[in-house]
Amino acid sequence: MQRKAGMETVDMDETNRFLQEMSVGTRFWKSEQRKEEVLQQKVNQLLEKYSAWKEKPPNPHLDSELDRYILTLETMRDLSRTYIHIDMDAFYASVELQSRPDLVGKPIAVGSMDMLATSSYEARNYGVRAGIPGFLAIQLCPMLEILPLSFAKYRAVSTKIRAVLSDYDPNFQSSSLDEATLDITQYLLLHANSDAESVACEMRDRIVEGTGLTCSMGIAPTNLLAKMCAELNKPNGYFRLPSNRDNIVAFMKSIPVRKVPGIGRVTDRLLGAVGISSCGDILPNSHMIAGIFPSLSVDFFLRIGLGIASKRVKSLGTARKSISREKTFRDFYTDDEVFLQCQEVAAVLAEDMASNKLQAKTMTLKLKTIDFELRSRAITFD
Length: 382
Known about the structure:
Helix 2 runs parallel beside helix 12 (265-273) and helix 7 runs antiparallel to helix 9. By secondary structure, the chain is an alpha/beta fold. It has helices at residues 12-23, 27-55, 60-75, 91-99, 121-124, 134-140, 151-165, 185-190, 196-211, 223-229, 245-253, 265-273, 286-292, 295-306, 335-355, and strands at residues 83-88, 108-111, 116-119, 145-147, 179-183, 215-220, 238-240, 362-368, 374-380. The strands form three sheets. The protein has a four-stranded mixed sheet. Strands 3-2-4 form a three-stranded mixed sheet, with helices on both faces. The protein is globular.
């Protein structure tokens, strides 16, 4: 499992064992068991492909084609640009603490007893992290304070942060309220006396002054590398990866594949099943990877191994293709109460659409059951 900043001293094996024991028989545990069964099936299928690949005789033609493709990818390396990735430190929790100064320095989390969205660094010292139910988090940290999500507050603070970022890159990309990627290449050209590190520090100081919140930053020649670098000196720090091939290749060799944006739990397990645990394992095993993974995945993995991969970001500033509202219900809601609540949610959604001058072509209803099963139904209008 990917280790979050603030959890460096936590025994994750012991924490996960404890969570497993405490959740046995719960709906959360049953949901995780179902996910594990599906994932193990995928692993077994991949291992069958791996065994079949090993039995095949070498194919010099395909091998040389792959080697040529890797050389072609190498020629696409672009070291001319400078990116800064900004990641606000424990954003939701930090915003909440501004209105609850009595909780500063204490372990807190934001979310609900069903699921946590984030946790403070003090809570992470106990193994409390996003993505686990609050009722389990309290078992890890009995003094934990769980605060409800307040998206209106987060959006207001995020707006202030975005105003600062736009001074350095008006076209910065952001797919969430607490992260953004800036291409400051043009800014550096226009400000000859500035360098990337001084710009990053200035930006960070302005964010602190305007919001009272800290952030961590990564500086690198691609947006994906910058995002990875932002994870290295949390909280309130930055890491710069020099823009030369040798440093980039050396940097990637030691990075666990799970730390790469775009590689989640499933892909990490699949790669690990065939001996790929770090980015440095990719190129030496490129022929095997090409023999058992889909071509799009192979291309992505090779770019990771070379350190030239970039991430595609769907910016919050781009035209919206969807809009949604959701609500969590208590277990004891009756059918009539649920229908009433759905009507209220639909009314709020209709107001949002009207204020954004949007019209719907497809309407989708998603329902997550108390057993964590996701069901959906959709209807498309003519």
